[in-house]
Amino acid sequence: MWVGGVRGLMLQALHPLAIRGVWQNSDFQEDPFGRLRRTADFVGRVTYGSPQDAEEIGRRVRGIHRSLRIKDPDTGGLHRVDDPELLLWVHCAEVSSYLETARRGGLRLTDRQADRYLAEQRRSAAYVGLHPEDVPGSLAEMRAYFAAIRPSLRLTPEAASAVRFLLWPRLPEDLRHLSPGKPVYFPFGALCYYTLPAWARRMYGVLPEVPAPLVTAALAAFRFTMNQVPERVHHKAFMPSTRAMLAASRERFAAAGYDTAKGLRGLGDPRRWPARP
């Protein structure tokens, strides 16, 4: 999720209006990691939260977006942050990044399962204000979407700054105690960068190219290593409200009969488990 999230932000930044919307309406320059944590909160709530959790955060996001505007320095025009085309770009860059990094990192999903994931994510798109039928719901539809939008993408000064921030971010106040380990972050940021599509890396041109098999091996090793870390340690990176939501979700899933022995990331569907003696 962390690699996919940062990759998604790097990809999203190549849309001129999308990155300018972030640049003009958020504290991304001061706290890029905070932006990632807020994204993780949204994804966590629409994935593991109750229907009420998902609806509530959807209303919150739509309310924030509704009042924000983006000034295009190229034309002098104003654009709405909740423009459907921008929302669609952000959604597709995000969910495709999660899917592609997970599969490349070793999560064994068939194409049919990947199609199902993208179809299910149409519901998360609806929470931010999109019509589900307008959102790619399969691998073929997602490929067609990226092929159509690529001519609209380009490297702006804001995008170049964003990728540098994501390769070497400024930690938020509550995580400053991790500053001594900050040099360890750069290989992680580089891994996120190298998982970008080749055309996106060519647009950025920030780091020298490395062999694709090396990136795949590093991603698989990262996923294996992180999966050895207890879930409670993972959760320390989330906002307190996210941690509380995840704890409540774990209790709710357990009460519904799910196997939560491996935490939320290892949920066992009760319909697939034999009855216990």
UniProtKB/TrEMBL annotation:
It holds the Pfam family MPAB_Lcp_cat. Coiled coil: none annotated. Residues 1-215 form the ER-bound oxygenase mpaB/mpaB'/Rubber oxygenase catalytic domain. One of its GO terms (molecular function) is oxidoreductase activity. InterPro entries: MPAB/Lcp_cat_dom. PANTHER family: BLR2777 PROTEIN, ER-BOUND OXYGENASE MPAB_MPAB'_RUBBER OXYGENASE CATALYTIC DOMAIN-CONTAINING PROTEIN. This is DUF2236 domain-containing protein. It comes from Spongiactinospora rosea. The lineage of its organism: Bacteria, Bacillati, Actinomycetota, Actinomycetes, Streptosporangiales.
